[in-house]
Amino acid sequence: MTALLWAGAGAAVAFVVVFLLDGLTRPGYRPVRHPVSALALGDRGWLQTTNFIVCGLLITAAAPALPAQVGSVPLAVVVGFFGLALVASGVFPMDPMRGYPPGTPEGTPTEVSRRHQLHDHAGAAVFTALPVASLVATFALPGPLWTWFSGAVTVALFGGFHAFGQAWENDSARLGLIQKLVITLGWSWLALLFVHAAT
Q1: Number of Cβ within a 10 Å radius of residue 159
Q2: At what angle do helices 45-62 and 73-91 cross, to 10 degrees?
Q3: Cα-Cα-Cα-Cα dihedral of 9, 130, 75, 140, to 10°?
Q4: What's the rounded Cα separation, in Å, for the pair 109 and 188?
């Protein structure tokens, strides 16, 4: 079980590292402008697709090991759901839009594919499950450090994901930056949760 927990922690860290490095080196991709999901498009799209699926599967596999270590079945269920939603985000990539891949018109199409709609649903599940997990952890994990840390992360994630949603609706030039900051915070909290459970 400990190995699974370490795998979950590694997956959460690797997810962030991969999309940051890929985004910084991908021709035509603007990290401040474009969302992480756009990296699943284009010639190198397989890399982010793999990132979604492998990391999601490892997090899902690690979730059942949490109750024995932290004593919370609800926390494990929400984390497992988060992992599965991450997998779905990779299985159903978004449509090309907003200038990526290069040559794609700027702006959002008036009609999107069913695949894109499923990606949106999966993304909503991801961005809801993680703050719910940190909220559960606020009350489930012993000790004031984890109570206050998880509580602060919960507030930041709900606020951050709302800010990203507004940025997406307004086609903000900084929506990619907002999303990446929030993802980095949330996935870092998840990695620390797994490390805490493993040790």
Answers
A1: 12
A2: 160
A3: 100
A4: 33
Domains: count for the chain:
1
Torsion sign over Cα 81, 150, 187, 173: positive
Could you tell me the residue range of the domain that residue 41 belongs to? Answer: 2-198
Beta bridge partners of 100: 97
pLDDT in tens, 126-150: 999 999 999 999 999 988 999 999 9
Q: What is the pLDDT of residues 66-90, one digit of tens each?
A: 999 999 999 999 999 999 999 999 9
Question: Whole-structure pTM over 0.90, yes or no?
Answer: yes
Rg (CA), the chain: 17
Residue whose C-alpha is closest to residue 53's, from 26, 13, 108, 15: 15
Our CA dihedral for 159, 176, 59, 153, rounded to 10 degrees, sits at -20
Residue 111 token pair = 């009609």
